[in-house]
């Protein structure tokens, strides 16, 4: 459910002006904005010079309108430069911070852009998940190997049995090494 059927709009900002809000509707693919899919669009505009930000969002209409946007890459045909705008967030009233539009700054290109992308994804993941670790919350983890629960209480106590009936308090812990 990371794709959207809503109408998506973008505004591209450069040192010489902006495009104004443009709907992204002409794509070579029959269905646009599907999970895991890369869509390509041609946006006609005067040359904006060096690009520095975009505003992208959707109108929130249609079933399943929430959208998880990884990134936007704009290829300038005049200078042959690629501008990357990392998002890695939801544009959804019911997810993340509830926004359906975002302003994204250009990511500087170079040898550290991959590292920048990883750091941004880490920060965004933490921003979406940190509510679980707020004071007063009790976390319950399920260990698939032992098929048991571990409950971490706000007072620092650890219960290796946990509450097996509380299916909403279970969080799967994934470790990436």
TrEMBL record:
CDD domains: PLAT_repeat
TM regions (residue ranges): none
InterPro entries: Inner_ear_hair_cell_LOXHD, PLAT/LH2_dom, PLAT/LH2_dom_sf
Positions of the PLAT domain: 1-105
Annotated protein name in UniProt: LOXH1 protein
Native organism: Eudromia elegans
Lineage, broadest ranks: Eukaryota, Metazoa, Chordata, Craniata, Vertebrata
């Amino acid at each position: 459910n990371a794709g959207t059927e809503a109408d998506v709009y973008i505004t591209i900002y450069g040192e010489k002006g902006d495009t104004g809000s443009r709907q992204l509707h002409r794509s070579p693919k029959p269905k646009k904005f599907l999970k895991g899919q890369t869509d390509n669009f041609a946006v006609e505009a005067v040359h904006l010079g060096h690009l520095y930000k975009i505003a992208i969002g959707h109108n929130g209409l249609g079933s399943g309108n929430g959208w998880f946007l990884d990134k936007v890459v704009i290829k300038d045909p005049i200078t042959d430069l690629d501008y990357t705008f990392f998002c890695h967030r939801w544009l959804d009233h019911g997810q993340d911070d509830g926004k359906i539009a975002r302003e994204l700054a250009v990511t500087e290109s170079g040898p550290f852009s991959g590292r920048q992308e990883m750091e941004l994804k880490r920060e965004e993941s933490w921003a979406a998940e940190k509510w679980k670790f707020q004071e007063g919350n009790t976390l319950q983890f399920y260990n698939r190997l032992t098929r048991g629960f571990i409950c971490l209480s706000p007072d620092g106590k650890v219960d290796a049995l946990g509450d097996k009936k509380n299916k909403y308090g279970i969080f799967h812990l994934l470790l990436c090494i």
